[in-house]
Amino acid sequence: MPQPPIPVSADESIPARQTDIPWRLKQMLDILVYEEKQRPAGEAGPCLEYLLQHKVLETLGTLGKAEYPPGMRQQVLLFFSRVLGQVQHPLLHYLSVHRPVQGGRAAGSPASLSLPCQKLLQLSGDCLGSGTEKEEVQFAAVLCTKIKQDPTLLAYILEVSGPRASLCWWDTYGVICGGKSILNGRRAQELPASPVEEGAEHPPGTAAGSPPAEPSPPRRDSNLVTSLVGLCKSKKSRVALKARENLLLLVGLAQEAAAACLVRSSALCQLLTEHLCDLYSTVPACTDPADILALERASWRSQGDAAGDGVFPGKESLAAFFGWLDYLDELVMGAQPVVADAITEAVEEKFFQGILRPQLLQMTPLAASHPVPSRSELAVLSATATLTGTVRQIRAPPLLHRLVLFLLGPDRHPETPGDAPHPLRTQLIDRCNHLSDEISLASLRLFEELLRKPHEHVARSLALRNLEARGYLQRGPPVPDDHGPPEPDPDEDGLDLEEDPYFTDGFPDAGFGTAKKPQPESAPLGKGQVSEVVSSFLCLVPEEAKTSSCMEEGGYDTYVHDALGMVQACRASAAPWGWPTAPRPLDACHPEVTFYEGHFLKVLFDRMTRILDQPYSLNLQVTSVLSLLAAFPHPHLHEYLLDPYLNLAPGCRSLFSVLVRVIGDLMQRLQRVPHFRAKLLLVRRQLMGLVPGE
């Protein structure tokens, strides 16, 4: 036979759940629910009126905060959650319900909902790992549901703290403990005042003048927001997930006044951003950049799952950082615009400008003679890799817009050589041509990730701004070369590069076999012309350097499949941008200065000219970025990057002309290397892992 519950007054050290307190609280709840069912909708019964008028809920909040008896906080949180969830009457609109949830009021102050000093919410999220996290998040979830139903409540629940209330402590103590104060009909005025007041009578078992211990005040005024953000950090995945879901509900309130209140009356943005910065600081500085880039895209719903196998040091910290970043991204996407703008502004100020910018602007040594990267190079590599992961993680348009402008600046006018209005953009592009191949590779990956984002300013800033006037085209008749064609080198074994039909740089009148050059004002290329353009690029490679036909599995089908997917993705991203379908008419183009391809394309073209001397991985990355640029459906990009028939203006170069120079260099090397094709085929098989390397 189970033992009867112990009265709380017998021994104040006995946990509340082992006393009759839970039973009496359940009785109170059952009475309130039953009474409500017996009365017309919206009408408060005498029991509910008594509960409100005699500050019963207020006193429960004080007892829970004081943990008197031990475990009382858990019981009070459960009771409040059940009362607010099961009683349909709008309790939060009443003063004495709002006061224990939100705080007390000073004696003599007007009975309004603008009440200070939260009690129960001050307890939530203050101490991670507490035994009441489950009850705390349940209580916060009920409040969020009520606020969702009536957004006007948010302004009152987020009130800042103020003077404490005068509580009728003995009223509720008698109800809970079975005492005779209320049950005998004594009026509240005849009972002792709250024990938290100075000089008030104290609860049984405590010394006179020693009020129940209260936790130290939090760093910020505690409210529903601080409670939810604190619970979002819980090590208990279910608690953290439920807290994050309810915070999403809170920031998604459609009412603009409620959204403005959430930004103005809480530390939401600061708390979210500070936690992001704290998580970023926990990522070990020695984390391999390759491991950072290899980490799969994190999800805020799968807390801790990405770090379960612990493949490399720092993976858990990285997963936590990217998971929280993904959550901020989700918040911004689902938030009311006022809240979304406030969160993105805080992220830019604290994280982008405050942390990432100093790291990314860190100078690196120009020498690259050491095979092992220096400490400063490793720091730059790690910061660049983390930034690449950050770009990959962000999807919310407001946050993506801030990130793009942070990295590239807002300028949209054509560039001029040596112009650097945005130092960070200049630094990042310069690193694509760094003497350290590792830094160049990491920087190129960053720009490839940027180009994959659905934001028009990326392509505009990096390339299109310099192509608008089509200054790369020859406007008048070709300027004749006064010096005539250069004399062939007798040491070239009869190879005359100038007679190569594809070596057109500097020879605008040169033809391409039987292909006829389209005029600059022509419409977009048709199928036949596209085939001719493709053939022109393919014919650049001499037969001695072609090895695909000798490979058992060259990966051609996979390449075509991936390329098609890339083109389709670029077209889908650019669909809302309103790009033209035909080049801008030349008579409407008025280039003011000599054509300059821009910093980014200049670096890419310079890299392409050295393709024969660079590591294979770096060449792949350069061509990958150029391919991505060429996949965008803008006529100027297609014309400049893909049209081999352009009449280039003096001093200008295009992708095709750069490749012609590279092939010319390759042809000269072919003559000097015996059995070149066999050696090239062996190297290719080694790179593909078909044969072991030396």
UniProtKB/TrEMBL annotation:
Ranges annotated as biased composition (Acidic residues): 488-502
InterPro entries: FHIP (IPR019384), FHIP_C (IPR045669)
Top-level lineage group: Eukaryota
Region (Disordered): 191-221, 473-527
Domain FHF complex subunit HOOK-interacting protein C-terminal: 597-689
Any single Pfam family the record assigns to this protein: DUF5917
Family from the record: Belongs to the FHIP family.
PANTHER family documented for this protein: FHF COMPLEX SUBUNIT HOOK-INTERACTING PROTEIN 2B, RAI16 PROTEIN-RELATED
Name recorded for this polypeptide: FHF complex subunit HOOK-interacting protein C-terminal domain-containing protein
